[in-house]
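Lecture notes, unit on binding sites. The following record was shown on slide 14. It pairs a sequence with pantoate.
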Amino acid sequence: MNIIREVSAMRAWSRQKRAEGKTIGFVPTMGYLHEGHKSLLSASVQETDATVLSIFVNPLQFGPNEDLDRYPRDEERDVAIAKSAGAEVVFAPTVEEMYPNEMYTTVRVPALSAMLCGASRPGHFDGVATVVSKLFHIVQPHQAFFGLKDAQQAAIIEKMVQDLNMDVRIRTCPTVRESDGLAMSSRNKYLSVEERATAPELYRSLEQVREWVEQEEWPIGEILQKWRDRLQNMECAELDYAEILDYPSLQQPDLNLKMKKGQHRWIAACAVRFGQTRLIDNVLIGTHAKAETVRQTGGNAICI
Ligand SMILES: Nc1ncnc2c1ncn2[C@@H]1O[C@H](COP(=O)(O)OP(=O)(O)OP(=O)(O)O)[C@@H](O)[C@H]1O
Ligand SMILES: CC(C)(CO)[C@@H](O)C(=O)[O-]
Ligand code: BAL
């Protein structure tokens, strides 16, 4: 397996693969890989001829008081995981290689970037859309794989690709969870023992919200209130947001609405702070919600 650090070498590799008639699959990450990333790699290896994993902690998507400097890194371990998952290339450029000049160009998807994580992390999704656009130009993939844990990010990338006629197919993959339901995330490593014990409450509350919505008994506004009350009562945690929105448009539904089976495609999404650590999670509710979660049970993944 190759480790490529230069943009020109990455482009040359991709050009060569394309000339050989091979399809390229791409999994963009910030590294510190876990089972969620592995599931994206395995989808790519299954569906394309050659898989590229990128590891790049992108400064452009971090706010001034966020965790850019302490973001967990372990390239050696990541490379071993990528290799055993069947990736052909790890693209791991330096910040100077990706941003040799002052950036005057920003890719922005305003209609989907202001709400949810965009409200608490101003500019975050501009940084994401810009770096993903650059990575697509460098890696030139046929397909790129994103996790539904970052559902807003996936919606933004799909819209960017559609609006800018980018020649890449976006594949979104289910959220991989620990056996107690906590969504896997590189940032879980920051949690204290006490916070880690509380964190599965996010997913438990999301399952409850899905049940409430599907029971068709209460309007969305009432469910939101009950859900926020529950999250505000969590030990050692502070609620950032809890919203039910249409997905992928991220528009707010009429809060007086009850769900009608087969008519809605909603997302319930939340973010909670445990001290300095901010975790996100979501579930899809309605016609698009099939098998959107994978739970790890002692190494065997099951879709639910
Ligand atoms: N639990 C998960 N299941 C499926 N995909 C995931 C999961 N966690 C992350 N991903 C996906 O992996 C890709 C890279 O994400 P990233 O490297 O930021 O990992 P992360 O664990 O989400 O890190 P962070 O803690 O920074 O949120 C994204 O497409 C993201 O949605
Ligand atoms: C897509 C991404 C790799 C862009 O930096 C990042 O936002 C992530 O890891 O989800
Ligand atoms: N997975 C999202 C990347 C970030 O939090 O910056």
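Take-home: The longest helix spans residues 124-139.
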